[in-house]
Amino acid sequence: MAGERGQVSNDVNACVDEVIRRVGKNITLGLPLGLGKPVRFVNALYQRAKDDPEIRLHIVTALSLLAPKGGSSLEQRFLGPFVERLYGAIPELAYARDVSSNRLPENVQVSEFFFKAGSYLNNRSQQRHYVCTNYTHAVRDLMAVGVNVVAQMVAPGEAHGQPGQVSLSCNPDLTLDLIPLLREREDAGTPVALVAEMNRNLPWFGHDAAIGADRFDIVLDQPSSDHPLFSAPQMSVSPEDHLIGFYASALLKDGGTLQVGIGSLGAALVHSAILRHKHNDAWRAVFDHLRVDEHFPLVSEAGGTGPFEQGLYGCSEMMVDGFLYLMEQGILRREVYDHAGLQSLINNGEIAEQVSLATLDVLRREKLIDSPLRARDVRWLIRYGIFRGAVEFKGGRLRAGDQSVEGDLDNSEAREAIETLVLGDRLTGGIAMHGGFYVGPERFYQSLRELSDEQRARICMTSVNFINHLYDHRFGDQKLKVAQRVHGRFINSAMMYTLNGAGVSDGLEDGRVVSGVGGQYNFVAMAHELPGARSILTLRSTRQSHGKVLSNIVFNYGHCTIPRHLRDIVITEYGIADLRGQSDEQVFLRLIRIADSRFQQELLKKAQKVGKVDPAFKLPDSWCNNTPAAIRSAMSVTGDAGLFPPFPFGRDFTDEELTLGKALKGLKAATATRRGKLATLWQALRARDDEGRYEALLERMGLSGPSGLREKLDQRLVIHGLQQLESPPDTGNSKT
């Protein structure tokens, strides 16, 4: 009946029936960002809406993940077996596929506040219904549009000794704050329905992410239909990405805090951080070759060059797989505690992780405990491992087994007994990683499932409103957040950066949305509020468009994500621009300093024309070596070709697929213009594989025995693309 919670069903259509019974046929459905969407329930509800036009379904979410299909016939042939291998056992989000094909019925609308980058750039429906919001405002905006149903995939707790509990696992980010607000709405008379969909393949996380199953109204539990998790394949890391990651790794402060985003630039940073920690001599060789400390003295103040002796603490809206690699390598190990006073004492070096009587003396001096000890003091001390877990407080005395100890810290005999019988060995309950959501490769999910209890306890998946800004939250106030997030380095990527210091990360100047603001603005703003913190925006210096190389450092642009007054640190493959507190002239020059040399003179002329740079200024020779050749030189300085690999953390593509992928990428670049397309087709028509060198690769593409004109042309194109890999055309290396 209505109001009854925690109803368990193994019938997805019965769950849909119950939702409609509770809230009616006007449904505004809130779904988690990314991985946590309950695919079985959502597909059933969407199908019901397609079958019943009286249902008005509005889906509000972000990052609806779909397996790639490919545009051209060659892309489809390449992706077909790959997609089947990675996604064949995973049910597809039916509404998302219909959105991408512009086939949504009139009674269904989908609004997202973050797209997979570029996925809906030319989808007019999604461009119209996009909701521009900071990640921290998503809960507010969900409530504003009248969300009355929330559904999420969860992990059951039985296998982890938590019967009756479920874990929000990959997506506590918004749900932890949505549930109480929806219950308030329900208490005020508006019907709501909260749906959980069990999936035993979802890794379990405790702490804030573990809640009672009865917090939901309906629980879909059908183990026979549990499916693998949607994975995001590892992206290749280019030499340019590696250098960007390298420069960023030099700005990490030992004992500090790290936030990093998804993608190849994040992977490059993690790889270089591991190099710095585990192979410091090789890392230093690249550092010295680039003369980083000479050209960019900021690193000596804000960063470091040695191994991470104290370690880092992760505080990131997205727990990318790189954080797990940092944990495995002993870098992500600085633990924080949920008490501001205790954390501040640790930060100041007044309390060490190893517990001693001096620990108690400091805590008493700071009035965090009393003497004689009281019951609440003992509970607090046990909570953080300062006292052993078996210690009890009875009759005003400490009891350890059959021993009774006085709790007077001024009594020498009592102190000796406390030290012998009561004190723990080291602080416990610390967290090395706070994350709001995660999505990544299958290998990442498997590693999360295989974490030991001790490792899992060091990760807290929690509310994005705790992580992404400094305002007070029920999981921690501003004082606690400031104490935990020392030396914060908030590292995010941008598409373009303007000479006056504005970042372009989410959209184009014609208004079309590429991805979304997400949490980038929050982290940039927080970096300006936290003492010792820095915001770092990373971007490749150039991009290719329609066969031309364009600069991503631009004079101006008609859209920005991060306003110029929040400018801080910008990194390209050519170095670091420290912009905080600098005059406009210095901002312009420092950005020109890290632009590709093919564009520096043009940018300088524009800056001088508008009076932002002294007209007598000339580009120093040391600035003018920002070329692809310089990148190759830096990558090879150690003589170890494997130091900066294209897939530092494994890959989902086979060797054959990597070769084919490079060939297809080359063909796509060569045919970006009409002239290039005609030239490529003409060359492809003459391409032959008479010796059968590419037989296995053609078979992988389903083109070993082509029939019909289309297949024969596709075969010739693939052969031509493969031949170009072996004998690429000479494009020159001009700076102009």
What would your notes on this structure say?
There is one protein chain. By secondary structure, this protein is of the alpha/beta class. It has four domains: 7-225, 3-Layer(aba) Sandwich (Glutaconate Coenzyme A-transferase), CATH 3.40.1080; 250-263 and 310-335 and 433-631, Acetyl-CoA hydrolase/transferase C-terminal domain (Glutaconate Coenzyme A-transferase, 3-Layer(aba) Sandwich); 340-422, no CATH class; 655-726, no CATH class. Strand 21 and strand 22 (548-551) form a beta hairpin. It is globular, with a radius of gyration of 28 Å. It comes from Marinobacter guineae. GO terms for molecular function: acetate CoA-transferase activity; hydrolase activity. One of its GO terms (biological process) is acetate metabolic process. Keywords: Hydrolase.
Would you tell me which CATH topology of the largest domain applies?
Glutaconate Coenzyme A-transferase
**H/I helix tally:** 29
CATH-scheme architecture of the largest domain = 3-Layer(aba) Sandwich
Label the overall shape. Answer: globular
Mean pLDDT, as a whole number? 95
Return the structural class. Answer: alpha/beta
Tell me, what is the CATH class of the largest domain? Alpha Beta
Distance between the termini: 74 Å
GO molecular function, one term: acetate CoA-transferase activity
Keywords: Hydrolase
Protein name: Acetyl-CoA hydrolase
Pfam family, one: AcetylCoA_hyd_C
